[in-house]
Structure formats: structure tokens, C-alpha cells
Design a protein that fits this description.
- The protein is an alpha/beta fold and 225 residues long.
- Helices cover 38% and strands 15% of the residues.
- It contains 7 helices and 9 strands; from the N terminus they run βαβαβαβαβαββββαα.
- The chain has helices at residues 34-44, 60-71, 93-101, 121-139, 155-163, 195-203, 208-223; strands at residues 8-13, 50-55, 76-80, 105-108, 145-147, 168-170, 176-177, 183-184, 187-188.
- Strands 1, 2, 3, 4, 7 and 9 form a 6-stranded mixed β-sheet that branches.
- α1 runs parallel beside α2.
- The radius of gyration is 17 Å and the shape is globular.
- The structure holds zinc ion (ZN).
């Protein structure tokens, strides 16, 4: 029987290697090199308490991430932007199915990479219900897990996700998470990713003050309006 760890470290990757589309402002801060990505994966091998996720549905998910995950016997969950599928430099429909066939999990990162705290009702429907529905049709199974764009949420966003029967929502709050929690904090790989970052995040050696601050931030986000 596989032992379920008490807590897990969720990692988030975005684009890797050469960018295949024009980057949005700030997107370069989470874009990493192929060598950085390989070093991160090497550190994850054998760690049952580390989970790997990808956001944004870049073409590098299939072109760069997938073969390197498979080489190392790792699995990951890919949260794709459903409204941007088949756009230049992004995943296409075949790529999404290829990820699934290779044993990877696929979830939704919404429709058009909007800030979910600033949606009107029609946009909220597109970002959550339509995105989950169309992605589910593409992969032939229900999509019930989402990654919140920019990690931007409040009480209303969480209520909308619960109403849409989302079973797990991934944020970008940092730190470790309990494996079964509905809200899953993640740690985003950044452009300056190095050995020190890897050992800090995977080792869970964040100072007590940092951990206390994360708990406070999560509490505020959950209840703010
Ligand atoms: Zn994103």
C-alpha cells in the first residue's frame, strides 16, 4: 500500500525553454530554462510528497516537459487555458490528449487567463463552467480540478468554484499543503530558480515567520471581498 504523506509540496511550472508566443507583462518572471527545469525534476525523483503541476497550457508542456517527466518516471497535472488551445505557442487539442494518454492529469486554468476576482457573471460562466465542460469533452472525462489564474481568489471566487462542483482548487500561496485539502497551495518556479530555491522549497525549511505569514495571507484571501 502506498503511504500518503501528511503534507505535500505542490510545484507549479509555466513556460519552459524558448517562448513560442509573445509573453504577457510579468510572464517572463515565471518562464524557466530547460536546464533549470531538468535540475528541478531531478530533485523531485523519489519524493512521494512532491507534486508537479503546470499552468497556462504552453506548447512546452508537451514539447519539453512531457518527455523529461516520462524519462524520470514522474507524473504531473497540467492546467490548461481552454480558450487559448490551438493558439500559436500554446498546446493544441492533440497535445492535451497526448498528455492524458501518457498518464498525466489534465485540469482547467480557465478560459482566457482573466483575474477571477474581476469577472462579471457571463465571464465567470465562461471561465469555470464552459472551460471545464469543453475540456472534459476534449479528454473524454469530467474536469473537476482547477488552478486559479494568478492565484487570485476571494470568498466569492471560492463560492463559484464550489457551486460548479470543483473538487480541488490550486492556488499560488506557497508552502506545503495537506494532500486531501480542497484548496491546494503551490510554489511557482521562477526565472531565477536555483539550487538554493529547490532545497528551500522541497526541504520545507522556510523560516517560521514566513510560514506564519502564509497562513495569515491565506486566511485573508479566503474571507476578503
Ligand atoms: Zn496562469
Amino acid at each position: 500500500m502506498r503511504v500518503v504523506p501528511d503534507s505535500v509540496v505542490n510545484l507549479t511550472g509555466h513556460g519552459i525553454g524558448p517562448a513560442g508566443h509573445e509573453l504577457a507583462p510579468g510572464e517572463d518572471r515565471t518562464w524557466i530554462g530547460t536546464g533549470q527545469f531538468e535540475r528541478l525534476l531531478d530533485a523531485v525523483v523519489g519524493r512521494a510528497d512532491v507534486r508537479i503541476t503546470f499552468d497556462d497550457g504552453n506548447a512546452s508542456d508537451v514539447d519539453i516537459a512531457l518527455p523529461r517527466l516520462l524519462e524520470r518516471g514522474l507524473v504531473a497535472e497540467f492546467f490548461v487555458l481552454v480558450g487559448l488551445l490551438n493558439a500559436p505557442g500554446r498546446l493544441d487539442s492533440d497535445g492535451v490528449r497526448e498528455l492524458r494518454r501518457a498518464g498525466m492529469a489534465v485540469g482547467s486554468h480557465g478560459w482566457a487567463h482573466r483575474d477571477w476576482r474581476r469577472l462579471d457573471a457571463a465571464q465567470a460562466d465562461e471561465e469555470i463552467a464552459r472551460a471545464n465542460g469543453e475540456l472534459g469533452e476534449l479528454i473524454g472525462e469530467p474536469v473537476t480540478r482547477v488552478a486559479i489564474p494568478y492565484g487570485s481568489y476571494d470568498g466569492r471566487v471560492l463560492r463559484r468554484l464550489r457551486y460548479a462542483r470543483v473538487t480541488q482548487a490550486y492556488t499560488s500561496d506557497g508552502g506545503r499543503a495537506r494532500p486531501g485539502s480542497w484548496l491546494q497551495a503551490r510554489n511557482s518556479a521562477r526565472h531565477d530558480l536555483d539550487a538554493a530555491w529547490i532545497s528551500c522549497v522541497l526541504g520545507g525549511t522556510a523560516p517560521l515567520a514566513t510560514r506564519a505569514r502564509r497562513v495569515a495571507v491565506r486566511t485573508i484571501k479566503r474571507f476578503r471581498r
